[in-house]
Design brief:
Seven copies of one chain form a homoheptamer. With 80 residues, chain A is of the alpha+beta class. Chain A contains two helices and five strands. Chain A has a single domain, classed as SH3 type barrels (Roll), CATH 2.30.30. Chains A, B, C, D, E, F, G: GO terms for molecular function: RNA binding.
């Protein structure tokens, strides 16, 4: 299966590589949401957003500018 | 037992390999559910869904398109 | 003690090896229960059930067919 | 201290080795309790009980027979 | 700093080595308390108490005799 | 992707290196917030703030001076 | 960045080395607070306090004398 997998599929974090300098939506454990431009990430899913804002009910509730989010808080990341 | 196991049984993550490009249902800790087409996964169960939607009471509540879900949130994955 | 242990006792996961292709009851953290036929498992207790159903108060509440359960959610596994 | 410790004291899991084939009481995180005959254990405190029952307020609430308990759920184990 | 530390200070678990065969108070996550005679411990803070009792509001609520407590539940240990 | 990543992007913790001796806002799991001057950090995101204060509703509720925050509590860090 | 970091900044746990034999305030997950004289620590932030007391609303609620606190419970440590 591994050989087949390597040929036919990408790795999950490749989605982050493709999203650099683009806007992403981040959902954290507990429900917090952030939107911002992905600046960097590592294999723990630690990531830095630029022009970041925290959202409540989809509306901006706090402008953070640059923010480093610790990866273990993340539920999902979705490119927008 | 190991020899017997290797002969007679598959490994749990083989189910993900067989589900690539097919629709899966994902249940997360806390109860969140997602449905989408499995695009990639790794050994931590980090995975990417395409055409993903978040579900509430089995109905689509949010269309996410592409979403990277962090594996440590996952309770179960079921091919549909 | 180790020598004595190796001679006289089995390892806990041997119970899973003996339960392959048999029905098991799975209890998860938070109280969720599943019943199904054990198809595969690994050392993290990730496991795949066939003919799986989720239970509420001992009754089937949802038929899942094939399901991969992430091992870190598991409280106990009992062969039936 | 290490030398002194090795001479004068045993290791905590030795209590499990001495309890094989004897009845033990298991308390889990969240308050669940089990009583059964210890059949096997490993260094993660994964363990198998035979003739196991789940307890509520000290009374048997569910007979499980053989049960594999995942070690990370355990608060304490007490030989009876 | 390391050299200075090794000369001037002890290591935290040395307190457990000095408490062997003496009474200790154990506080667990969630608030549970135990008192007993420390019989053994390891580097994960797994430990065995003899003559152990569970406490409620400082009073004995359950006599456990010998008990193996899994280290990851522990908040603090205090020699008495 | 790795080569491209190394050329074009920085690593998330570089944001902390650039924030040394500057004021940062720290959000912890559970909602606690701190503001202070970043004095040091390590790869676990353990960090030391000088002139630190704990915030409630954005207002200073407790002056701590020097504080070492354990990295596993951190949700995000934002330079101000 | 690493070279610059090693030259210009200290490591977070250095704050603990400098606080040996001095009074510190400890905040735990869940809100518990302790005050005492730091006797020892290790890289997991396991630490021993002498003359320790547990605090409620900043007042002493329980005198513990010597206490070993397991590092994974700690939110922050502040020298006083």
């Amino acid at each position: 299966m591994n050989a087949q997998k390597n040929l036919n599929t990408s790795r999950p974090l490749d989605v982050l590589g493709k999203s650099l300098n683009s806007q992403v939506l981040i959902k954290l454990k507990g429900g917090r949401e952030f939107r911002g431009v992905l600046n960097s990430f590592d294999m723990h899913m630690n990531l830095v957003l630029n022009d970041a804002e925290e959202l409540e009910s989809g509306e901006s509730s706090r402008r953070l500018g640059v923010v480093l989010i610790r990866g273990d808080n993340i539920v999902y990341i979705s490119p927008e």
